[in-house]
Amino acid sequence: MRFLDHDEADDPLLSVVNLIDVFLVLIGILLIVIMRNPLNPFSSQEVTVIENPGRADMRITVKKGEDLTRYESTGEIGEGQGVKAGVTYRLPDGRLVYVPEGADGARDPGSPAP
To answer: Any transmembrane segments, and where (predicted)?
Structure first.
């Protein structure tokens, strides 16, 4: 009765068990990659991701809780309706000084003296 003395190496069930082990390791790796991503769906923190900074195809993605907002650059210069609020000067030691427009004694350095 030779069929009772078969080798375990010929068992097809062992190869299925090995495939299941490989898939479990693969799933574990994918979960780790998802959790390390700053925009993962399981975190509740606020995150801002800037892709290609300073280039024409720059994208900004903002995540607040479960809401994702994506801003894409069109490459055009923006234009607003604001007004000049003051002037900022850099001192020799690197500090910045902001002088509001219309403050006492403050004037635009390019304007003529009174």
So the answer is: 12-34
Amino acid occupying residue 22: V
Quote the tokens at residue 73: 């650059």
Whether the CA torsion 103, 107, 113, 114 is positive or negative: it is: negative
Give the residue carrying structure tokens 């994918």: 30
pLDDT for residue 78: 67
3-state helix, strand, coil in the chain (%, to 5): 30, 25, 50
Task: Return the closest-CA partner of residue 47 out of 32, 36, 57, 33.
Answer: 36
The one-letter amino acid code at 114 reads: P
Question: What is the residue type of 78?
Answer: G
What is the average pLDDT value for the chain, to the nearest integer? 78
Cβ pair 112, 98 in contact under 8 A: no
